[in-house]
């Protein structure tokens, strides 16, 4: 797999917003995102709200999000693709 994109906390929050996640709370620099499904199942992700996230942090967020979203949905936002295919924030 190719290298991860350099992302910020606000970029990642916007990405997950496109999939229906909303900001549920914030404690310090960490934002809790939540999505409630039609069967009342809660899906929660915690994102550090920093200017630039370490590659390991971005990879951990990506892996955690794979519990809720398919790799084909997420990959274009986290890994570089050709210029034409790359989604915007």
Q: What is the CATH topology?
A: Metal Transport, Frataxin, Chain A
Low-confidence region ranges:
none
The overall pLDDT average reads: 91
**Main beta-sheet annotation:** 3 strands, antiparallel
Which geometry do the CA atoms define? globular
Trace the largest sheet across and list its strands.
1-2-3
CATH class, named Alpha Beta
Domain count: 1
Q: Which architecture per CATH?
A: 2-Layer Sandwich
Helical amount: 25-40%
How many beta-strand runs? 3
Task: Please describe what this structure looks like.
With 89 residues, the protein is α+β, with helices and mostly antiparallel strands. The chain has a single domain, classed as Metal Transport, Frataxin, Chain A. 31% of the residues lie in helices and 22% in strands. It has helices at residues 9-17, 55-65, 71-78, and strands at 22-27, 30-36, 42-48. A 3-stranded antiparallel sheet has the order 1-2-3. The longest helix has 11 residues, at 55-65.
Could you provide a short overview of the structure?
The protein has a single domain (9-78), classed as Metal Transport, Frataxin, Chain A (2-Layer Sandwich), CATH 3.30.920. 31% of the residues lie in helices and 22% in strands. It contains three helices and three strands.
Q: Helices, strands, pairings?
A:
Blueprint: H1 9-17, E1 22-27, E2 30-36, E3 42-48, H2 55-65, H3 71-78
Antiparallel strand pairs: 1-2, 2-3
């Amino acid at each position: 797999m190719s290298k991860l994109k350099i992302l910020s906390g606000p970029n990642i929050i916007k990405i997950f917003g496109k999939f229906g996640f909303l900001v549920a709370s914030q404690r310090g620099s960490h934002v809790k995102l939540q999505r409630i499904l039609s069967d009342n199942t809660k899906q929660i992700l915690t994102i550090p709200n920093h200017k630039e996230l370490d590659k390991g942090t971005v990879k951990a967020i990506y892996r955690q999000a794979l519990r809720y979203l398919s790799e084909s949905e997420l990959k274009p936002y986290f890994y570089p693709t050709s210029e034409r295919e790359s989604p915007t924030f």
